[in-house]
Write a structure and sequence with these properties.
Layout (H helix, E strand, L loop, with lengths): L1 H18 L3 H5 L3 E2 L5 E6 L11 E9 L5 E4 L7 E4 L7 H7 L7 E7 L6 H8 L4 E12 L13 E2 L5 E6 L11 E9 L5 E4 H4 L3 E4 L7 H7 L7 E6 L19 E10 L1
Antiparallel strand pairs: 1-2, 2-6, 3-4, 3-5, 3-7, 6-7, 8-9, 9-13, 10-11, 10-12, 10-14, 13-14
Length: about 260
């Protein structure tokens, strides 16, 4: 009987820690990584943990140890999506997410030195201080893979575009000044991906014919129907030309796998 009462008492104590207003109290009952991140498991999740190269989708709330929130995905249209291993988020968050499983919810106490806020918030928490991140791992996905175009014909337009039709459809035809929604993956000839809407977590939407995307996209989409997929090979003069852009070098021929999701 005493053992049972002891277990009940321990459970109530843990429940108190989880509901306590001071978030740092909960962290004291959890685990610590070799890098100094402390964490507690609010919800365990299921399946495998994500690894470098995979794409994760999270919601999070960042606060000081007194519970004051300074950053959050709450109220935003989309959760945070990023590819692990690409240094797209702060080191503490990248390490913490890889401890989680899909559906899990963790609370982390991350040293200020492992965040992107060291200079901005050191006056608030001290250089040796820490921040509290409550994170929910919504989704884990593999990096996008190029379309399988084996045994498919490569066609060429008069403007120099080459394309391979991967999937045909009888949906609405894209037209100038129509709103289109597109999923895409852009890569170089060696297969290295430089940009992908799948890695961002959502497709892009724009008005066709208004110069919002590169010319090669504009001209290819005018030949497509809703629901179709193509690989388009875009020469430099229809892409980013002699200057290049971002990670795209000058005079680069670009390969895009494009899916036209919707025409409005």
């Amino acid at each position: 009987m005493n053992k049972i009462l002891g277990r009940i008492g321990t459970a109530l104590l843990i429940l108190f820690y989880f509901s306590c207003g001071n978030k740092s109290v909960l962290i004291q009952t959890g685990f610590t990584t070799s890098s100094g991140i402390k964490y507690a498991i609010l919800k365990p999740g299921k399946g495998l943990r994500p690894v470098s190269g995979q794409i994760v989708q999270i919601r999070y709330e960042a606060s000081f140890e007194d519970g004051s929130v300074f950053e959050s995905t709450q109220g935003k249209d989309f959760p945070l999506v990023f590819k692990l291993g690409n240094n797209l988020v702060m080191p503490g968050l990248e390490e913490g997410v890889q401890l989680m499983k899909k559906g899990a919810k963790f609370r982390f106490k991350i040293p200020l030195s492992m965040t992107n806020h060291a200079q901005k918030l050191s006056h608030r928490v001290g250089e040796e201080g820490a921040l509290i991140y409550e994170v929910e791992l919504l989704k884990i996905a593999d990096s996008p893979k190029p379309f399988d175009v084996s045994d498919l014909d490569t066609l060429k337009m008069e403007n120099g575009l080459k394309y391979i039709k991967v999937l045909s459809n009888r949906g609405r035809k894209a037209e100038s000044f129509k709103m289109v929604t597109v999923h895409y993956t852009g890569f170089f000839e060696d297969g290295k991906i430089f940009d992908s809407s799948h890695e961002h977590g959502y497709p892009i939407t724009f008005v066709l014919g208004k110069g919002e995307v590169i010319r090669g996209w504009e001209e290819m989409l005018l030949w497509m129907r809703e629901g179709e997929k193509v690989r388009v090979i875009i020469p430099p003069n229809l892409a980013y030309g002699k200057k290049g852009f971002g990670s795209v070098p000058p005079n680069a021929t670009l390969f895009y796998d494009i899916e036209l999701i919707k025409v409005d």
